Amino acid sequence: MIRILAALFANGITLVTRLITAVxxxxxxxxxxxxQRIYYANHVSHGDIVLIWTVLAPALRKMTRPVAxxxxxxxxxxxxxxxxxVFRAVLxxxxxxxxxxxxxxxxxxxxxxxxxxxxFPEGTRNMTDAPLLPFKGGIYHLARRKPDVELVPVWxxxxxxxxxxxxxxxxxxxxxxxxxxxxxxxxxxxxxxxxARARAELLSLAPDTPRAAEPNR
Amino acid sequence: MTATEQIxxxxxxVAVILVIATIVGRVLRYxxxxxxxxxVIENLNARINAWWAMVALVGLAFLFxxxxxxxxxxxLSFAALREFITLTHTRRGDHWALFAAFFVVLPVQYALIAxxxxxxxxxxxxxxxxxxxxxxxxLRGDPQHFLERVAEVQWGLMICVFCLxxxxxxxxxxxxxxxxxNLLLIAxxxxxxxxxxxxxxxxxxxxxxxxxxxxxxxxxTVEGFVGxxxxxxxxxxxLWWITPFNPWQASLLALAITVMGFLGGLVMSAIKRxxxxxxxxxxxxxxxxVLDRLDSVIFAxxxxxHLVRYWWTP
Lengths: 217, 314
What we know:
The complex is a heterodimer.
Chain A: H1 2-21, E1 24-27, E2 37-41, H2 48-55, H3 58-63, E3 64-69, H4 70-73, H5 77-86, E4 90-92, H6 103-112, E5 116-119, H7 138-145, E6 150-157, H8 159-162, E7 176-179, H9 191-203
Parallel strand pairs in A: 1-7, 2-5, 2-6, 3-4, 3-5
Antiparallel strand pairs in A: 6-7
Helix pairs in contact in A: 1-2, 1-5
Chain B: H1 3-31, H2 39-63, H3 65-86, H4 95-114, H5 118-121, H6 124-138, H7 146-165, H8 183-207, H9 222-238, H10 247-275, H11 290-312
């Protein structure tokens, strides 16, 4: 019963997403192959997960689990249902309120089970005017623990205009999700070097917008 | 012939053209089977396939008569406005104005057309939306690029909603002796303008030498323009039997709308050039966005509407 409801919900969410954003997946650096991967993306909205989810083909969707903050997604029954049953999210304790339940361990466990992940290395939604916040180190630790799994940069464009911070209703605009060239941790690459390289790869996928640099209140 | 028979004849004619186009496209592809696929031929085939889908969509809408046609163009306006606003520089301060543009102005405009309220649908966007949306934006208190932002939203509404809504507005015209046939006016306008686009492309590909506006649109040539407009005008004259016009009237109207269509394509190309994109969107395989396909219809529709209204309605 829950399964059927979750499937209906998933279809409903992707349909609404397409109606509002006509989202297009652009596989420029790799193909939509059903390989185990860690997709890492810029984070501007709670809709980011939905947008990536929508452009993944059903076979890829089935094996991909978004990583999301338990503090947000466990509030309220609907959110809990969407996070756990629809997206089968790996919920992590960002505040580390309980020792021994490290976010990294939860992600590593999901990867061990064969899942692909969607992660947001900025750690929180980008509410600033900068295109991308500094990365947290988790992506390096994941890459070190799972050296065979490709890390794919994913740039989400325009979703912040569909639903700017603080607004409650979306406006329809075209969005795109661009998949870049996969990267792997190189031998002897330091944490700082790898994180900087991963961030630069992601940033290189951002389209040039002359106005992007201007402050947008 | 009754109106229904004429509509069937028109769709039958379009189907014959598409069958021929499909065969030509597949033969061209087959002849190159030994070499690597040509992007032009692949795009041609994608375009022809999309044409089948578009004709089927219009046919489906026509099955539901007036309601179907109004609903179809309302949805096209929605898709077009979505593409247009994506390329503008609106800011967070425009959020409510944009929301109103999509979910209030657009539906109201088409409701007024369903209601055949000419006095209001012809001023609703240029007067009321024009004044009210900047007010909504100004209330958010962000002056940066204000004039540019409100002008872009206003122009988007004029192009994507106001002008495009003049296609189904043809249904509201009472032409003596033409009662119950107004869907065929839509068929005439859309077919002549789209055939003109196609023939400009074909003539341009076959004979095109002299670029007509190299800084705006590298694919438009003098040969394509002249050949396309003349042959589409002749075709329009040949379609006089589905219209309230006689053959020479049909040819003059066809000339007017094909020239407007060409110029509309030029204007919309200038916007795309400035924003650094090749296509408005990606909804129609091989063609680009909805606006890439409708730019010429958008510029032709209000002119056609008013010419017909002035000379053919009492």
